[in-house]
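Weekly sync, protein design subgroup
Attendees: M.S., D.O., the rotation student, P.L. (late)

Item 1: inverse folding check
M.S. brought a backbone from last month's batch and wanted to see whether the design step gives back something sensible before we order anything. D.O. pointed out we never logged the input encoding, so this time it goes straight into the notes. Structure tokens as presented (383 positions):
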């Protein structure tokens, strides 16, 4: 088949920017819609905590496997086809995740769903790099802000439907319909091409791409820590009722979304290096405040600082990938995204290991030191 990328490219404009925002919103919405279904799946399948952990690992494995493939396929088939295809696959998987009672079928479906999410995340970032570069403006924080908004709305919307007694399969049908309509709206102005052809389909990150990927690993690890351990810390260390402990992650996610939605003019004003410096210092300070000041109010303030601090670091890294010349972006974007996902998947487990040997507070302080490392190391980024 002839590569779509060889066709005369459409020069991205306002309509392409709008469709890119929708694609990011769809990605965040699709990913988060699954989270409220996890307790239902656990009960329906009769799994204990260990079994559920192994089941959820299938989602992460699917994501990591699909990312390099997505980069290579974007060159051949273009962003539009890949975004629509992976979005449709997610629409088909979600109702199944709400109804399947067979563990083997659930394993396969979660793997496919994870693969669709990993590929969708990669392709939307490749499209965003092309669109931002064509505009000559800083836009990546706003794009990622729509991802955060989609994540908040997806989790909150599904939780609201389930709380009023809507059947899980019906809630997922509503979600799938919403995603399908959003794809229909975005599709005409998604890019029919991807990155420039050339370079290997798969490559180990090197040079500045490896440097960016390792810093992304730390920021994504921090996000994973907030997702999996913030409520545990509030409950076990600060005496917050378990039913309210989830507000810790909600505060983090809300302030991350606000930081990203307001981020583009701030990035333009301060520049990449100051964003990484101030963001890393803010996040490290937030983690320190949450850990060392022994009241729950301080922990919530700390989580807010972590959200604000982390909000624009990853977007400026993706913009930097679009400017570097060491590796083609269709290889570089999957590489740094994969390293980030490894941080999300392995980080919480590593935190649990450190907490077992010492304490959860000690694990959080290790993350604070790693965030300081990002703040300092980011000053050596040259792209």
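Designed sequence read out in the meeting:
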């Amino acid at each position: 088949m002839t590569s779509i990328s060889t066709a005369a490219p459409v020069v991205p404009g306002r309509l392409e920017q709008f469709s890119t925002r929708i694609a990011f919103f769809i990605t965040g919405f699709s990913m988060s819609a699954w989270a409220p279904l996890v307790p239902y799946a656990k009960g329906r399948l009769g799994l204990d905590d260990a079994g559920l952990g192994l089941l959820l690992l299938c989602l992460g494995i699917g994501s990591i496997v699909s990312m390099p493939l997505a980069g290579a396929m974007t060159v051949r088939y273009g962003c539009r086809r890949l975004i629509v295809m992976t979005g449709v696959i997610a629409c088909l998987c979600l109702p199944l995740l709400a109804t399947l009672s067979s563990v083997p079928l659930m394993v396969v479906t979660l793997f496919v769903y994870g693969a669709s999410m990993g590929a969708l995340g990669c392709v939307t970032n490749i499209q965003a790099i092309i669109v931002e570069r064509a505009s000559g403006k800083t836009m990546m924080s706003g794009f990622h802000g729509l991802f955060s908004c989609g994540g908040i709305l997806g989790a909150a919307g599904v939780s609201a439907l389930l709380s009023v007694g809507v059947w899980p399969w019906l809630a997922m049908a509503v979600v799938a319909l919403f995603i399908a309509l959003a794809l229909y709206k975005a599709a005409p102005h998604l890019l029919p091409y991807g990155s420039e052809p050339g370079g290997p389909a798969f490559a180990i990150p090197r040079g500045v791409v490896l440097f960016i990927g390792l810093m992304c690993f730390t920021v994504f690890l921090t996000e994973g820590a907030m997702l999996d351990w913030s409520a545990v810390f509030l409950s076990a260390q600060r005496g917050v009722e378990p039913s309210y402990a989830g507000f810790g992650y909600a505060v983090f996610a809300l302030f991350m979304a606000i930081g990203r939605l307001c981020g583009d003019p701030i990035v333009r004003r301060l520049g990449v290096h100051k964003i990484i410096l101030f963001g890393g210092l803010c996040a490290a300070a937030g983690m320190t405040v949450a850990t060392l000041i022994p009241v729950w109010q301080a922990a919530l303030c700390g989580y807010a600082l972590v959200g604000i601090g982390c909000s624009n670091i990853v977007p400026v890294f993706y913009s930097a990938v679009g400017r570097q010349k060491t590796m083609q972006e269709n290889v570089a974007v999957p590489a740094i995204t994969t390293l980030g996902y490894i941080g999300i998947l392995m980080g919480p487990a590593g935190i649990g290991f450190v907490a077992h040997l010492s304490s959860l507070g000690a694990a959080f302080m290790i993350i604070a030191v790693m965030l300081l490392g990002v703040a300092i190391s980011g000053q050596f980024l040259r792209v």
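Discussion: Residues 207-380 form a domain with the Growth Hormone; Chain: A; fold (CATH 1.20.1250.20). The chain has 16 helices and no strands.
Action: P.L. to compare against the previous round before Friday.
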